[in-house]
Amino acid sequence: MANVVVVGAQWGDEGKGKIVDWLSERADVIARFQGGHNAGHTLVIDGKVYKLSLLPSGIVRGGKLSVIGNGVVLDPWHLVKEIAILREQGVEITPETLMVAENTPLILPIHGELDRARESGNAVAKIGTTGRGIGPAYEDKVGRRAIRVADLADRATLETRVDRALAHHDALRRGLGLPEVDRDALIAQLLEIAPSVLEYAAPVWKVLNEKRKAGKRILFEGAQGSLLDIDFGTYPFVTSSNVIAGQAATGTGIGPGAIDFVLGIVKAYTTRVGEGPFTAELNDADGQRLGERGHEFGTVTGRKRRCGWFDAVLVRQTCATSGVNGIAFTKLDVLDGFETLKICVGYELDGVALDYLPTAADQQARCTPVYEELPGWSESTEGARSWAELPANAIKYVRRVEELIQCPVALLSTSPERDDTILVTDPFAD
Ligand code: IMP
C-alpha cells in the first residue's frame, strides 16, 4: 500500500484543502507533520463548509484516524476550540479518531505575544507572520525549553519546564518592554487545559509504524508551502518549520522509506502573503485580475495575497527539494480569458542568467524575471473533468509547465468542487 505526502510547492495557498480532502477519502490515516494553526484549510463536503487550521483534514470524514505529529507546534486552547466548533457541526472526535503526539511542543500565550510584539515594534525584523506564535514556539523547541504535551501530565514536571522556559522569556520580555510572565497563572492555565489535550495524547510514532505494518494507507498532510521552508525557502521571510516532504518522516516518527509518493500542489499562477522577495509579482491590472478571479485573500488572517505569473524556476526547485513525483495543478480556470499568459522561465541577476533562486536574500530581491509568452484561451476551463474538455491552448500551457518544472501532472483541479478533477496518476496506486 502506498503512503502519500502532500506538500505545497509554492508559498502556500495552492489549494491543498480540496486535494487533501480528495485523497483523504482513500487514506486510513491522515497526519499533520509541521506548522500549527497558522495554516488554513477550507473543506466543502456535501455543501457543508468546514474550516480547519490545526486538525488534519481527515477529521471531518468518519472512520479515519487523524494524527498531529511531533513536527507540529500545538496551541492547546486553539485545539480545544477547533474541536468544539467541529463537534457543533456534527463531526465526531474521540481518542480513537484523533491522536496527538506526546512529544509535540506547545504554543503558549507568551509565544503569540512575542510574535506580535516583534512584528509591530520593529520594521527591520518584520516578516509578516500570522501572529500565532509559531516562530517563538519553534525557537523554544530547538532551544530545549519547550513544554511538550507529555509534560502536562505531571504538575512537578510542568513547573520545572515552565521555570526553564520563563528564565529565557522573562529576560526577553524585559528587553521588549513587556511585563514578566505570571508564572503561577500560566501553570494554572496549563493544568486546566491539560486533561482536554492529554485525552488525545499517544506515542504517534508507534501507532503510525504499526498502521504501516498492517498495510494501512497514510496521507501526510503538509501545511504552508516549500518556499516558506525554514532551510530552503526565501529566508528569513519563511515560516519556522521544515515544510518540504522530508519533514513528513521526522515530524511523525516514521522512516523516510515509508514515503511512496510525494504530491506537490501547484497553482497555475503564483501568490504569497507577507513580506519577502517575489520575482514574478505583478503590481498591475493583470495581478489585480488574478487576485480577484482567484479570491486571493488569506484564510487565517484575511490579508490580500500578492499575485504574479507562474514561476517555473521556483517550482522546479521545490519539486527537487521535496522529491515530488507528480503535481496537482490547481486553479487553471483563473487564467481563463487572458489573451496572453507569461511564465517565468529564468532569472537575471546583475546581468547574469540564472536557472535557480539564489540563496542570499539580497540576491533574491534583485533577481528580475525572464518571461516566455504563451497564447491564452477565451473558453472556460472551469469544471472540466477530462482533457477533451480543455481548450488546446490550456493543454499547451499545462504541458509547457510540466516540461519546465521537469515533473508530470498527476491531478488537474478545475474548480473548488471535489469532482472537478482530471486524474492522470493516482498517488495511492500500488
Ligand atoms: P508564521 O508561520 O506565522 O511565522 O508566518 C511566517 C510566514 O509564513 C508569513 O509570510 C506568513 O504569511 C506565511 N504563512 C504562514 N502560514 C501560511 C499559510 O498557511 N499559507 C500561506 N502563508 C503562510
Walk me through this protein's architecture:
- This protein has helices at 16-24, 76-88, 109-121, 134-142, 155-176, 183-198, 204-213, 247-250, 285-293, 312-322, 361-366, 392-405; strands at 4-8, 29-32, 41-45, 48-52, 65-68, 98-101, 201-202, 218-221, 261-267, 270-272, 306-308, 310-311, 326-330, 340-349, 352-354, 368-375, 409-413, 421-423.
- The longest helix has 22 residues, at 155-176.
- It has twelve helices and 18 strands.
- Helix content is 32%, strand content 19%.
- It has 430 residues and is an alpha/beta fold.
- It has three domains: 4-103 and 200-261, Adenylosuccinate Synthetase, subunit A, domain 1 (Adenylosuccinate Synthetase, Chain A, domain 1), CATH 3.40.440; 109-197, Adenylosuccinate Synthetase, subunit A, domain 2 (Orthogonal Bundle); 266-423, Adenylosuccinate Synthetase, subunit A, domain 3 (Adenylosuccinate Synthetase, Chain A, domain 3), CATH 3.90.170.
- Bound molecules: inosinic acid.
- Inosinic acid (IMP) binds at residues 12-13, 38-40, 127-130, 132, 134-135, 223-224, 228, 237, 239-240, 273-274.
- Inosinic acid binds at residues 12-13, 38-40, 127-130, 132, 134-135, 223-224, 228, 237, 239-240, 273-274.
- GTP binds at residues 12-18, 40-42, 305, 331-333, 413-415.
- Mg(2+) binds at residues 13, 40.
- Keywords: Cytoplasm, GTP-binding, Ligase, Magnesium, Metal-binding, Nucleotide-binding, Purine biosynthesis.
